[in-house]
Structure formats: C-alpha cells, structure tokens
Design goal:
This protein is α/β, with parallel strands linked by helices. It is built from ten helices and 14 strands. The protein has two domains: 114 residues, Periplasmic binding protein-like II (D-Maltodextrin-Binding Protein, domain 2); 149 residues, Periplasmic binding protein-like II (D-Maltodextrin-Binding Protein, domain 2), CATH 3.40.190.10. A six-stranded mixed sheet has the order 1-12-6-11-7-10. Strands 3-2-4-13-5-14 form a six-stranded mixed sheet, with helices on both faces. The protein has a two-stranded antiparallel ribbon with strand order 8-9.
C-alpha cells in the first residue's frame, strides 16, 4: 500500500500523564569507563573553571545513529570554543541515564522527554531535558507480510517493550486502522487498553534495539527511526505507515539538574542547535530525522 503519514498522535498536554515502568536493558556498546580516557568526567566546579580558562572536556553518552553522528558534527564547532567532546556510545536506553546520574557522564543524548519522565519516576534520578534537537518518527515496516490491505488474522507485529515507545506504537497501529484503543487512551497505552482487534493481531514486545532483527520472524514491526537506520532501513522510503513531522517526541540533550547553566553545557546546546547540525540532518537523513529547533 502507499505510505501514509500519521499526523497529530497526541496533544502536548498528554505528555504530562503518568507513565509505566521501562523495559529491561541490553549491554552497552561500551561502558563509560572503557570508552573514556584515564581522566574521569570532571566535576561541575572543575569543568566550569576549566571552561573559563578556555579548555574543557565533556563526556556525552549517546546511541550511535543518529545521535553519535550529530555529536560528531557538533564537535567541530565545540573545538573552536575550547571544548573537547568525548562521545560514549550505548546500545540501550537505561545505562546512559544511570551513568549520567552517577556522574560518569556530563550529558546524554538519546531519548525523548516522555521516556525520561517515565525513567525518572521509576529510578528516582535527578536529570533534566535541556534542549530539543531532533525528532525520529516511529514507523511500521513489513516483515513476512507486505501489505496491510491483506493482513491475515493472527498476524504478528513486533513493538518496543518500554512504556513510552510501546504506547506510541499502539497509537500508531490505531492510526493505521489495525486496532482500536479504549476511549481516552494516550501515551500510557498498553495491550490491556486495546478495545478492538478485528484481525486478532498478536503483539510481540521486544527491546527497541531488537525489534529490527525480528522482521524475519514477524509480519510487521513498529521500529524507532534510529534503530531502523542501523539496519539500512530508510524510514521515509521503507516505512508503510509513519508519524508525521509534528510528532511530539523530540529527542533532547539531557543533563543533571543544576548543570544546565555550566558554560560548556551551554556551548554544547548551541553546537547541537547550530545551522551545521540542521544542514546535516536535512541533507543526509532526508526526513528520517527532522530538526526540532
């Protein structure tokens, strides 16, 4: 079928709703210690003093694509400002936040605010969504089946198992006409909120990073764009149903509460929201990732 857009999933007021627990994590690509130089992440006071003298190193945790790539673009401008960027890559959605809370990182860049809000509720961290950088529309992709028009009864659809992206996936399936959720259901949606499932679809809940690898085993899958890109899927071409650019799920630069005014952190925000990063997104990611600034 022709690719259709999913516009206006949810109003901004729904983002404040309470969220359920997160999914389990997988091993990171590298731990903060393994990826760092012998010098540990500096304290805010030491970092600010170093910034005033003109040189400081920031350790930022990120998932590789596109977050790590965008940080590499930003790093060029940061060098001119006397800030060296050390990127620590992770392949899960839990350890970047725990490492930031434990002061092994100065910031992280991988998550949207609904996920962070849910994480903080369940892990009692003290983090702050500081600056929106981009949106990664979530999309529905074909696996063993190729057309929603001929979807078979009992079809298997893989979706993310963390609370916010799982609810987001269910909202997408509802917009695609595959299920109906209970009236008033929003970002907190779970399988228990499905009011109508005419095709008796079987939902297969997996960690977000594992969903793309499940395509050979399921009929369809709802995949976050950052993980779609890692398996050479182009969200704007390969997704048969996708969120619109007005999705409220912007990915944020996140810091510890109280660190938001550190001079080097402010320089990082400026570098990530620079014309160079915007041009990179628009020229290289071509709709799979959309600037949020």
């Amino acid at each position: 079928m022709k690719r259709r857009q999913f516009l206006g999933l949810i109003g901004s007021s729904a983002l404040a709703a309470g969220l359920a627990a997160c999914g389990k994590s997988s091993a990171p690509a590298s731990s903060p210690a393994a990826a760092s130089s012998p010098a540990a992440a500096s304290s805010p006071a030491a970092s600010s003093a170093a910034a005033a003298k003109g040189s400081v190193t920031l350790k930022v945790g990120a998932t590789p694509v596109p977050h790590g790539d965008l940080l590499k673009v930003a790093a060029k401008n940061l060098e001119k400002e006397g800030v060296t960027l050390k990127i620590v890559e992770f392949n899960d959605y839990v350890q970047p936040n725990t490492a930031l809370e434990d002061k092994d990182l100065d910031a992280n860049f991988f998550q949207h605010k609904p996920y962070l809000d849910d994480f903080q509720k369940n892990h009692h961290t003290h983090l702050l969504a500081l600056a929106p950088i981009h949106i990664e529309p979530i999309g529905l992709y074909t696996g063993k089946s190729k057309d929603l028009k001929t979807i078979k009864d009992g079809a298997k659809i893989a979706i993310p198992n963390d609370a916010t992206n799982g609810g987001r996936a269910l909202l997408l399936l509802q917009a695609a006409g595959l299920i109906t959720l209970k009236k008033g259901t929003g970002i907190t949606a779970t399988k228990a909120d499905i009011a109508s499932n005419p095709h008796k679809i079987k939902l297969v809940e997996l960690e977000s990073a594992a969903v793309p690898r499940s395509l050979k085993d399921v009929d369809f899958a709802v995949i976050n764009s950052n993980f779609a890109l890692t398996v050479n899927l182009n969200p704007t071409k390969d997704a048969i149903f996708i969120e619109g650019a007005d999705s409220p799920y912007a990915n944020y630069l996140v810091v510890r509460q109280g660190d938001e005014k550190r001079p080097e952190i402010q320089k990082l925000v400026k570098a990530l929201q620079s014309p160079e990063v915007k041009d990179y997104i628009e020229k290289n990611l071509k709709g799979a990732v959309v600037p949020a600034f």
